[in-house]
Structure formats: structure tokens, C-alpha cells
Design a protein that fits this description.
By secondary structure, the protein is of the alpha/beta class. The protein has helices at residues 4-16, 23-26, 50-55, 62-75, 100-117, 127-132, 139-142, 161-164, 175-194, 199-213; strands at 34-35, 41-45, 83-86, 121-125, 146-149, 153-158. It has a single domain (4-213), classed as Uracil-DNA glycosylase-like domain (Uracil-DNA Glycosylase, subunit E, 3-Layer(aba) Sandwich). The protein binds iron/sulfur cluster (SF4). Iron/sulfur cluster (SF4) binds at residues 15, 18-21, 23-24, 30, 88-90, 102, 105-106. It comes from Tepiditoga spiralis.
Length: 216
Amino acid sequence: MFDKNFEIEYINKKISKCEKCSLHLSRNTTVPGEGNINSPIVFVGEGPGADEDATGHPFVGKAGQFLEKMLVNWSKLKKSDVYITNIVKCRPPKNRVPTTEEIKLCTPFLESQLIILKPKIIVALGSTSLKYFGINKKITAARGHFFDWKGNIKIFATFHPSYLIRNQSMEKNSPTWYASFDMKAIGWMYKAFNSGKTADEIVKVINERMKASGGV
Ligand code: SF4
């Protein structure tokens, strides 16, 4: 019988021993991802930062705390309601953007995680994640919109919280002001999936709501 928890733990053990790219040389620990393995929504960020590298848990530093605050305030969700992971599982030195080679070597792990988790919607946090999912748009243009990936998965784009903590103004048309619409949409999606709505129905309603509210 397929045991999701066992399968995810198996991948995470493989990640913990991985030395495929040079990021293993400077890491303290790998950060495979964690959260609700049965969530219809999986968040994918860029890579671990210093706090994540020290603890092995994703999004526990300042950016993660800001993400949690946004989830609680606007999505009415806890971080543990969704699964959260990153494109690369080891911290790039000085939090630089991971290289194309590092992404290429690491993302088979992400692909395996996504095959096991089977999310209906992936929230791409920031431009590195967006680019990985094949969306060649700026995050400012892509956010608040859905994109198809591999036929049956929808990608929903929003800002990376590390960008938002440097731009916390809630002034109209500011990044955090737009992110508040994205987070409300994510909260609604989560509840809609749990009440049996399909991804296509959800996308249609969110698109209408976003347009009507000025969120896009
Ligand atoms: S970043 Fe990914 S590919 Fe590179 S060592 Fe870490 S787990 Fe392996």
C-alpha cells in the first residue's frame, strides 16, 4: 500500500546524504521541506537561509515568520496546514540565488516530492521558483495569476516573503498590498478544496474575485 509519509521520509533521507552539488560543502544541514503531506497546496520557495540551515526546517527565519503572519492574518491558515519546501535543499552561501547547475542537480528531489504529495496547486514564492516552473514573466506581472504545469497542476505565483519583509508598506499597489490579495486567495483555495471543489472551479472563482477586488 502507498504510504505517503514513508515515501516522503525516504526522499528526505536521500536529501540528507546528498553531495551532488557543491552546496553540500557549506551546509550545516539539509532542509528538505515539511508540513501537511495531505495539503492540496504546496509552497515552493528558492532555498534555505541561515536559520533554516541551522535548524533543518524551512521558513523559520524572519522571512518564514513573515510568511506565517501573512498566512494567519490573510489566509486564515497556519503554516503547518500546507507543505513548504524549496527549489534547492541546501543553503547557497550568503543567500545567493542558486545557480542553474545547482537547480538542475537538486530539482529531481523536488519532482519526487511533488509526485508523492500530488498537490493541486503549487504556490511559487518568488522569481526563482516561478522560473523553475517554466513561467518566463516577472514576479510583479505573474503574481495573483495561475499557470498550468504538467497538465493537471496549477501554479499560483506570489512574492517571496524575503522580498516582502524589505517592502512592508501596505500602501495601495505596493508588493505587500498585492500579497494580501494573494494570501486571501490561497486561504479561499484551501477551504474550497476541502469542500470538494475542483481546481478548475477554484481557478475560475479566484480569477473573478481577483479582478473584482482589484487584486490583479
Ligand atoms: S542542494 Fe540539492 S543537489 Fe545540492 S547537495 Fe544539497 S540536496 Fe544535493
